[in-house]
Amino acid sequence: MRRALETLGPPLVALAAILALWELAVALRAAPPAVLPAPGAVAAAAWRDAPALVRALASTLRVTGVAMALSVAVAWPLAALIARWKFAARALYPLAVAVQVTPVVAVAPLLLVWLDPRPAELVCAVAVAFFPVLANAASGLSDVDPALVDLFRFHGASGGAEFALLRLRAALPRALTGLRIGGGLALVGAVVAEIAAGSGGPDAGLAELMVKAGLDLDVPLLFAALGLLAGAGLAIFALTSALERWALARFA
């Protein structure tokens, strides 16, 4: 209990202070309510449109989760390939960097020409999340203590045994760090792709709901959706951090 209070107490106090200052600014007419609605108005909008917000959040998180799973499924085997063969590193790593440095908002319109909106959103989310997962895993697999490598080879360990018993365990902390970073980036990629797609419909995500709220000048709903997105990002970070701690305690 004490540890939970030490962890959650400071951010909750900071959040309460921000909300109080926000409410005070609206009360003092520092900004028009149409531009900066009071926290109470945002909460009322969230309650009013709760079903739509929940559906939109579920759609966005579904894309985020699938994108994260695909990123790991592709990036970790590629990281193993890059760590074992220098030719693979020279051939594949520049392509991965090119994918990472290309703004997803510039690629999204082309993907929407080739694909339906939902697959295009998924590809965008994967493209954003993929590189940190790959880079961290490849770095962990490659950056192993040479003395330990020599020890394994001295005892006649095969390349497969060296990889499974030494390199995989050594790479675990960095691979999990990449997973934690990639989880947040997958959410960012999904949101950017939803804004670019703007397809609407029953499967519309939170970003599409925000675009519609902006067009309708429903600023309280816009703030509510933004707060929900921030909460989703924090939840993903907390979940991947907990997974990281568990895996390191269990396998490292």
Features:
252 residues; mainly alpha; MetI-like fold; 2 domains; 10 helices; 0% strand
Task: Characterize the structure shown.
There is one protein chain. This protein is mainly alpha-helical. The protein folds into two domains: 30 residues; 214 residues, MetI-like (MetI-like fold, Orthogonal Bundle). 85% of the residues lie in helices and 0% in strands. It has ten helices and no strands. It starts with a helix and ends with a helix.
The CATH superfamily of the largest domain is known as: MetI-like
Mean of residue pLDDT values: 83
> What is the CA-based Rg, rounded?
22 Å
Number of structural domains: 2
Helix and strand run: HHHHHHHHHH
CATH topology of the largest domain: MetI-like fold
Helicity level, as a percent range? over 70%
List unreliable stretches of 5+ residues.
none
Secondary structure class reads mainly alpha
- The percent range for strand residues is under 5%
Largest sheet: none
Write the layout of secondary structure elements.
Elements: H1 2-27, H2 39-48, H3 50-84, H4 86-101, H5 104-114, H6 117-142, H7 146-154, H8 159-197, H9 206-215, H10 219-251
Helix pairs in contact: 2-10, 3-4, 3-6, 3-8, 3-9, 4-6, 5-6, 5-8, 6-8, 8-9, 8-10, 9-10
